[in-house]
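User: Modeling request: complex.
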Amino acid sequence: MFDRRTWLGLALGLALAGPAAAQTAPIPVVASFSILGDFVKNVGGDRVAVSTLVGPNGDAHVFQPAPADAKKVAAARLVFVNGLGFEGWMGRLVKASGTKAGLVVASAGVASHTMEEDEGGKSHTVTDPHAWQSVANAKLYVANIRDALIAADPDQAAAYQANAGAYLARLDALDAEVRAAIAKIAPARRRIITSHDAFGYFAGAYGMEFIAPQGVSTDAEASAKDVARIIRQIKAEKIPAVFLENISDPRLARRIAEETGAKIGGTVYSDALSDDKGPASTYIDMIENNIRAFSAALSS
Amino acid sequence: MYDVFIAPFAEFDFMRRALVGTLALACGAGPVGVLLMLRRMSLTGDAMAHAILPGAAVGFLAAGLNVFAMTLGGLVAGFAVAFGAGAVARATEMKEDAALAAFYLVSLALGVLLVSLRGSNVDLLHVLFGTVLALDDATLLLIVSISTVTLLVLAVMWRPLVLECVDPGFLRSVSRAGGPAHFVFLALVVLNLVGGFHALGTLLAVGLMMLPAAAARFWTRELSALVVLATLLALGSGTAGLLVSYHWGAPSGPAIILVAGAVYAVSVLLGPVGGLLPRLAPRRHLEA
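Assistant: Request completed. Predicted assembly structure:
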């Protein structure tokens, strides 16, 4: 293990040695993960230069900041985080980078869900951080981001207002689209197994049920007991579909699907966007991709 | 009784596959572990496991969670390190453990470098911690083939391998099979670790190889008995570990290794060949 502080100190030195940004240049901001980065890009437009710490297909739960990340944070005017305990590593990174950037919690104002996490037989309650899976929450994120950008850069308030307004309208359309797609699925079939339970807010907002073989964090290894419980449940309740997820072990989901005869759905995205060539390179594409995949597997 | 020991395997296909996988692994890893221990190469297994990881990671980056790409990558990296270290040890004055340390560290660093150049680091955790609960047909066939090849090769090479353990000087004076036998044996170690990492992950695969062998050493001095006992202990640990994982919800890979560890601890205490209590007991008897 490298001594992280040494690296961060080195990176900070490099960052400070770099030339100061010109006043007219876009303001540098950092977003902790790809979905949040997409929101900030949409609201900021060409007035902000967004760097994303956890890139496409990366897992923010187990992210290890690199020296380059501390450099980005040190140079930023604003640092956007999801909050709700999603980025456990962010506090240390901000402190170590010595940045003067304002920290913006994008999920502020979200009615947070809790979830039961079973660990060693006794379950305990944790806050579910994946609030963006409900489009209504995404609109709160966008409003928070807009207000933070206006506060940091009041000269461009009109541009931020206009960008956010246009994007919020697209999110409204997206929300209607999701509701229409769900309405076409018979209520009894709105149940899905996925290898990572990041869809709590989606389930709450749109009336679907998600069951996962793992707890809230992807770093827990599923035990034979968990897998057996899931298989029993699929068989007993005749759950129609199993979904792989881009950041959790696909082999396990495939095995469960094979053993139960449930349909294997296409890839859905929950914690991270895909890269530019993938089907979920933006938030709107991600939600559309997911809802298409759910409908295809459940409506048959 | 039925509910505890049989029902999990009768009810669930994935438990049967996990059982077959661990049993096949145990059959290959048991004898290989005993030979590693007798050759004083117990830590070589661990070093080789690290050496395999980068190869498997490169295979993963090239083709995703593909059994054959990861196996091929692991074999190439493992063989390169094993043969490189073996060649250096035999051609120069450097001892094999030092050569191996040098080679596996380079291999590991190279792998970490390649992986971080490609960005996403997440799925590599699945290489480090395998999924014994998610063995598909291809992986099972691979593991079973590896154990079969291991047992056949061991049957053919048994005499030179054992002789080289106990009296390498004598083997050199009567035959030139020592060198080739050593390399074939290293190849077997690599093969078994590659098979093991699909089920248990690279690091835990070494556990199923070394712990039963080390435990068996406390019960017998006789070589064939040692091999049979190590294999049986590995079989038992695999089965018991799966049951622990099933009934108490422990992650399956660590559960298997910890059961093997418990067996080892009991053997250290009670084993009649150099175990703690049997060593103490006669002394008390004499003093009395």
